[in-house]
Structures are given as C-alpha cells and as structure tokens.
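Weekly modeling sync, notes
Attendees: S.R. (lead), two postdocs, one rotation student

Agenda item 3: backlog of single-chain predictions. S.R. asked that every request posted to the team notebook include the full sequence so nobody has to chase files. The rotation student volunteered to paste the first one in as an example of the format we agreed on. Action items at the bottom.

Example entry:
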Amino acid sequence: MQHVDPRDSAQPSDTTLTEVGIAAARNTASRVLVIGCGAIAREILALKAVNQWDHIALTCLPAILHNHPERITPAVEAAIEKHRADFDSIFVAYADCGTGGLLQQACERLGVEMIAGPHCYSFFEGNAAFAAQADAEITAFYLTDFLVRQFDAFVWRPLGMDRHPELRHSYFAHYTKLVHQAQTDDPELTANAKECADRLGLTYERRFTGFGDLATTLTAVARQSL
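Predicted structure, as returned to the notebook:
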C-alpha cells in the first residue's frame, strides 16, 4: 500500500467531525457505504484518496458520541436504515467503542459487517498486538492523533478539569503514562501530545501505529466489492 497521510487532501475540520460528522456523498460509482466515527474520518478519507476507492462512499457520525457510548448503536442503526436502499452493501467502521456488545448485535441483526476490536486504540495498534500487551499497559491512557488535537473537547472539558484542575489527581491517580498512538509523523502534534501528558501529570510515550487494522480491513472491504 502506498503511504497515506490524512493531511494530504482537503479535510473537514476537527470541530465538524466532532460535533456534526460527514454526510454521505454518493457518486455514480458508489456501491459500498462505510459508516464511520468522525474520529477516524481523516484516515478513511486518506485511504480512499490514495487507493482511488471511488466505489466507496463515506458517512461519519459525530465523534463526540464517544462521550455517550449508549447513543452510538441507535445512531449507527439509524444510518444503516437511512442508506441501505442506496448501496449494494454497508460496512461499519466502529469497533465496540463502549457499547457493551450492543453494536455488534445490531450489526448482526441487520446483516452488516463491522471492524473487529474493542475500540480504535486497539485496531490502530493492531488488535492482536494490543491484546498481547493489554495486561502490561493497564495503567496507560491512550490518545490518537485526532484526540490529541481535540484533547480539550474530549478529555479536559468533559471531565471538568478546565474549571477544577485538581480533579486530575482523582481521575488519573492510577494512570502512569500517556501513549500517543501516532497515525502520522507530525512534530507539532508530537509536541501537543507531550503537553497533554504534562497536563495530566503522566509520562509520555509516542508509538507510531499508522492506520493499523483500519487500513487492512478497509482494503479487504474495497477488494471484495470490486
């Protein structure tokens, strides 16, 4: 696979991906719809562009749903029902994402495949690799590139630390390090991730994951639908 970089082409803003998502934009070649999370939209769009997957369309739900995982399954179900008649097949680019298995059950009931894994940290790392080191990293707090950029929106403000910084000691007392799962080589983003670790009082580790299982899974989906 060619090198892919989510910064290479025009992308929706992080605020849009967090609060609104992306509506499906179908063209005459579109046969497959990927329903994804706004937090991985840039990566999916980059894969589409570099691989010229014109037969795949994308719609993304607001990434902020991750702060309310009970809303993810109903939102995905609604998107499937809304678009089912317009495409030959639908693929869900969400892992379990805190739904307690409900998303998997819904996809099975509706006859739709979804990406494997408990969450995006796992499939970016590679599900097998993440599972193998899970016990050793039980005190690790993970951020992807998107979550580094949106740290305040997903971590600092929702946990009330913008108003009460002292809460950091309660929330993160049992964490020891922040692992930045980097999808790109971006010095500015690395610096921002280090700042996030400092704000949480954690040691910093950068781990380049690239797109992990997201890339291999979507490549398989794209090939199957040709």
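Discussion: group reviewed the output briefly. The chain has two domains: 14-121+211-224, 129-208.
Action items: rotation student to repeat for the remaining queue; S.R. to check formatting next week.
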